[in-house]
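Data availability (excerpt). The following record was deposited with the supplementary files.
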Amino acid sequence: MFFCSLSSTFLLRPLRDQFGIAKGVDALPRLYCFTLLATAVCVPAFWWLSNRTPSRRFVPVVLHVCAASWLLLAGPLVAIGDYEWKNVPGLGETFWGGFSAVNVIVPALVWIHAVEHFRREQGQRMFGFVGVGGTLGAVFGSWLAGVLSAHPWLVAVTAAALLEAAFVFFLVSLPACSAMLAQRGESPGHVSRGGVFSGVPRLLGDGYLRAIGVYMLLLAIIATVFAAAQTEILGELATGAEQLQKSATIEFWAQGTVLALQLFCTGRLLPRLAPTWFLIALPSVSILCLGSLWLWPTGLVISLVQISRRGVQHSLDKPAREILYTPLDLETKHKVKFLIDTFVFRFGDVLGALLAVELRGARWGSWGGVAVMVAVACVWIGIGVFLGRRRVAPGHDAAERPRLSAGS
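Predicted structure:
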């Protein structure tokens, strides 16, 4: 399921990136506002479904809706020709916002499905392995994007087919999920309770959850600043097809790096090292990447920077962040986790885009901009240390700990 889901999103990601390159860095704040708007529409709809429908029903519904969206996109993409987005006014902005929301929603559905059935100890053993399936899908999708670069409409059709394949494997997983629940004496078909926005007071009233939210916010801010640098550097390429192929190549090698780390490092290190080491790995690498990009702002360096950052993010940082949710009750996993992974994360994108444009101003200077981002990364490290030290006592898992108290 994770393989097919990430194949779909990574197949479309270079197409989204190419539109951003065509618009330029100065347009990124406006584009990320479209992203935030799309997220603001999608998140309440997801909560509405989760409040009224068991996850075994709303996960397929969301997958089908996303697949239908990409099929509807294919028609207008025929008209843009050789990436002439102006041929269909508004198409690029709509695609940018919609993809950025779906890019968070679809992987979140897979992890919601996983954390609902795995306890903390199982997550430590298996989340790295589950991540390998997704990484293989990301590698495949990035490679396929380069192959189909001459036909953007075919990219959309293929992405829709991959989401339907993800639904098939979701169905295949259900018997094993039922068996795990039966062993623990739990029943499937849980329906969340509470209002559509009941996750907001939980997020604001719990110190642990607030720390996770700030961590994700800072992650998004710095990731968007690096994306802006990539947009500016790749904008020097001549054609849209070359820009897409270069973006796809970066993603291919980045996800290949993730795969190597997951196969040889994640599964061995995750059960043995404290979560703190995983949570501070990405901000620490980001500081090194900021210095490298400041010294050598070239296409080769931005490629190496993005490959190294995404390798660490998806192989080390991502599994550790998912484990942070395993002690929480099921309603918190559904509502607060999805709120953080979508709305909070996308708000960080907007802040990162605004910061990237601001730091381009001459009054900051290149060194001043790097200093600001290093300061942000240091705060990010501090939040990672705090979360890593918040250990849950043995036995306090989702079945025995119904809710974290406010201020815990």
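Summary of structural features: The longest helix spans residues 152-183.
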